Amino acid sequence: MEVILGFVIALAISLTGVGAGSMTTPLLVLFLGVSPPTAVGTALAFGAIVKVVSIPSYAFRRQVNMRILGYLLAGGIPGVLLGSIALDRLKHGNYAKVLYIVLGSMIVSTAILHLYRVLLPPPHRSEKDHSRWLPWIAAPIGAEVGFSSAGAGALGSLVLLGLTPLTAAEVIGTDLCFGLGLSAVGSVIQVGAGNYNGALLLKLVIGGIAGALTGSALAGRVAQRPLRIGLLLVLIVLGCQLAFRA
Predict the structure, then answer these.
(1) Rounded to whole angstroms, how far apart are CA atoms 9 and 3?
(2) pLDDT digit string (tens) for 87-110?
(3) So where are the chain's domains?
(4) How many CB atoms lie within 10 A of CB 30?
(5) Alpha-carbon distance 64 to 84, whole Å?
(6) Which of 66, 107, 175, 191 is exposed most, by the fewest CB atoms within 10 A?
(7) Distance CA 180, CA 59 (A)
(8) Global confidence as pTM
């Protein structure tokens, strides 16, 4: 079951571009009965591994702006630390209901934001460089990733389009590296806190590699927009189910 789940998640990511964190956490909690903290830690590690496979092609084509990435990580990494600490505090306290509500709400809001990007025309690329604001905006994004494993892809790309003159390819490459940095730092923190399942992660990765390869082979042959809309609607339902568990 875990291998199949990893395959499905990676296949969906390859075909739709929806982030790994948005999908993995609710599926682990609802379908495998994994506790929210363990699901978040495992999802962060899985997302980091999946992103590592994609980044070299963008780096080789010089589609990663290191200056902008530095601004993002300057705010995002402290945010991840705060989000991870908040998750661990809720785990140790008697806050199970609050944890399910907040986690479900974050998944729903991230899915709605993705849906907004799919259904409405993309924002115009900024002609001015407002990158000095990026650390302050990246901090809450990092906090959301540290707490729920979701949000870096949807929020990061919108911020880059609105505040920097980066091209579309540079936005994707830079945001992908930003997501990798947040996932890597968050997964290290969660693993250190014991919020992960090593056996489950291994099975997800095995299925994920097969899913990524299959998705790469099918890319361009399958209409992405209907799949993306359908998947995001499913994620909204899953996020609501997480919140209703409280």
Answers:
(1) 10
(2) 877 776 666 677 788 888 888 888
(3) 2-244
(4) 16
(5) 27
(6) 66
(7) 13
(8) 0.81
